[in-house]
Specification:
This protein has 51 residues and is an alpha+beta fold. It has one domain. 29% of the residues lie in helices and 27% in strands. The chain contains one helix and two strands. A two-stranded parallel ribbon has the order 1-2. Helix 1 links the parallel strand 1 and strand 2. The radius of gyration is 13 Å and the shape is flat. The termini are far apart. InterPro entries: Diacylglycerol_kinase_cat_dom (IPR001206), NAD/diacylglycerol_kinase_sf (IPR016064). This is Diacylglycerol kinase. It comes from human gut metagenome. GO terms for molecular function: kinase activity. Pfam families: DAGK_cat.
């Protein structure tokens, strides 16, 4: 029986807060991959409805 792949996309605003996410994005993706997710990341832009 084939198991469905779990996927996670991290959508983040690179300029929010103190810009901490930009320094930690690889670590966040690694944690998700360690528990079986196929990951990707998407950075929002100033454009309306960019997320």
């Amino acid at each position: 029986m084939e198991t469905a792949r779990k996927r996670a996309r991290l959508i983040y605003n690179p300029t929010s807060g103190q810009e901490i996410i930009k320094k930690n994005i690889a670590e966040v993706l690694d944690v998700l991959e360690d528990v079986g997710y196929e990951t990707s990341a998407y950075q929002t832009t100033p454009a309306p409805l960019s997320a």
